[in-house]
Specification:
Elements lengths: L1 H31 L6 H19 L2 E5 L9 E5 H5 L4 H6 L1 H4 L1 H18 L9 H23 L15 E2 L1 H4 L8 E2 H23 L1 H11 L1 H6 L4 H23 L9 H16 L4 H18 L2 H6 L3 H16 L14
Antiparallel strand pairs: 1-2, 3-4
C-alpha cells in the first residue's frame, strides 16, 4: 500500500510537469494555430533564468577570513552577505523561487519578440513549415545556452527549509516511514495553481472569453471591431511565461542543461496529441494520466516482468488512444484534419 501511494505521488508529480508544458503548447495552438516546437526550449530558458539569477546573487568579493588567526586568509563572500548580513544569506537560499521575479518579465518579453518577429509570419503556412521553423529556433536557443553556460548541468538547490522530505504517510494514516520530497510537493501545488489560474482567466474574465471566441472563429470576432491579433500576441507571451515558470520551479528537481528542453518537448507533444490538439482540458488530463501510467510502469515489480517498459509506456498508450480515438481523448472535429 505504501509503494502504491508513493507511485501515485510520483505520477502526480510527473503529470504536473507534463501538463504544465502541454498547457502552454495547447494554448498557442488553440489561439494561433501554430505548432510550436520551440516550447521545450522556452522551458529551458526559464530554468536558466533561475541559474542566471542565482549567479547574480552569488557575485562575490574576497574578504579576510576571521576564522584563520595564524596568517591572513581570504575567502569569497557574496556582496549580498557583505552589504546585508541579516537578510543576504536568506535571499541566496531562496534564489530559486525569487528568480521568478526575473523570469516573468524576461519570458514575457521573449514571447512578445518571438511572436511579433517570427511566429506571425507563419500563421497561415502549413504545419510542416511551422514545425521546421520552430524546431530550428529551438536548436538555436539550445546552442546559445550551451555557449554561454557550458554543456554540463548546473545544480540548484531548493531553500533549506524545504530541502528535506515530508512525512506524507502521517497525513494519510500510512505511518511515518512514508516520506516524499518537499519540493516535489511544492512543484505539484505550483502546477495546480498555474493550471487553475489559466482556466479561470479564460473562463471567467472578459478578456479570456474574447480569446476563447477568437479560438473558435477569429474572423467573426475581428468583424466586431476587436483587435483579436493583439490579444493573441499577449496569449503567446503568457504561454511563454508559463513555460518559463515551469522551468524555474523544476530546477531543484532536475539540474538545468542545454538539452533539457528537447527531453520535455517530445513528451509534451505526446501529451498534447493524446489529450486532443487544441483542447486545454485534454492536455491537462492527458498530462496527469500519462504521468501516472509512467510512474506505475517504473515500479520494480513491473520492470522485472517487462524490462524497459517505463521508457516506452507513454508511446504505447499514445498509439492505443490514437487508434481508438484519432483526434485524441478530447479533440475537436476540424483540428489537424487537413
Amino acid at each position: 500500500m505504501d509503494a502504491i501511494f508513493l507511485q501515485i505521488l510520483n505520477g502526480l508529480d510527473k503529470g504536473a510537469a507534463y501538463a504544465l508544458i502541454a498547457l502552454g503548447l495547447t494554448l498557442v495552438f488553440g489561439t494561433l494555430g501554430i505548432v510550436n516546437f520551440a516550447h521545450g526550449a522556452l522551458f529551458m530558458l526559464g530554468a536558466f533564468c533561475a541559474v542566471t539569477f542565482n549567479k547574480l546573487l552569488l557575485i562575490s568579493n574576497k574578504v579576510l577570513d576571521p576564522t584563520v588567526t595564524m596568517f591572513k586568509a581570504y575567502k569569497e563572500t557574496p556582496y549580498l552577505e557583505i552589504w546585508f548580513p541579516d537578510i543576504g544569506p536568506t535571499l541566496i537560499d531562496y534564489s530559486v523561487p525569487l528568480s521568478m521575479l526575473l523570469a516573468i518579465p524576461v519570458m514575457l518579453l521573449i514571447g512578445f519578440i518571438l511572436e511579433r518577429g517570427l511566429i506571425k509570419h507563419f500563421y497561415n503556412r502549413p504545419h510542416a513549415e511551422q514545425i521546421l521553423v520552430t524546431f530550428g529556433l529551438a536548436i538555436v536557443m539550445q546552442e546559445l545556452i550551451k555557449a554561454i553556460f557550458g554543456a554540463n548541468p548546473v545544480p540548484l538547490s531548493a531553500p533549506d527549509v524545504v530541502a528535506g522530505t515530508a512525512a506524507v504517510g502521517d497525513w494519510f494514516g500510512l505511518g511515518e516511514n512514508v516520506v516524499y520530497p518537499w519540493w516535489r510537493l511544492i512543484y505539484l501545488s505550483f502546477s495546480g495553481l498555474i493550471i487553475f489560474a489559466v482556466f479561470a482567466f479564460l473562463q471567467f474574465t472578459t478578456y479570456g472569453m474574447v480569446v476563447r471566441a477568437g479560438m473558435r472563429d477569429r474572423e467573426t470576432v475581428g468583424l466586431l471591431g476587436i483587435n483579436i491579433q493583439k490579444r493573441f500576441t499577449i496569449v503567446f507571451a503568457l504561454a511563454t511565461m508559463i513555460a518559463g515558470l515551469a522551468g524555474v520551479m523544476y530546477t531543484p528537481i532536475l539540474p538545468p542543461d542545454y538539452h533539457m528542453g528537447m527531453n520535455f518537448l517530445v513528451l509534451s507533444f505526446v501529451v498534447v496529441v493524446v489529450g486532443g490538439m487544441g483542447s486545454l482540458g485534454g492536455a491537462v488530463f492527458a498530462g496527469f494520466l500519462l504521468g501516472m501510467v509512467q510512474s506505475f510502469a517504473s515500479m520494480t515489480e513491473v520492470k522485472e516482468i517487462l524490462p524497459g517498459i517505463d521508457q516506452v509506456i507513454i508511446y504505447l498508450v499514445a498509439v492505443v488512444v490514437l487508434l481508438v480515438l484519432p483526434r485524441g481523448l478530447m479533440g475537436r472535429a476540424g483540428i489537424m484534419d487537413e
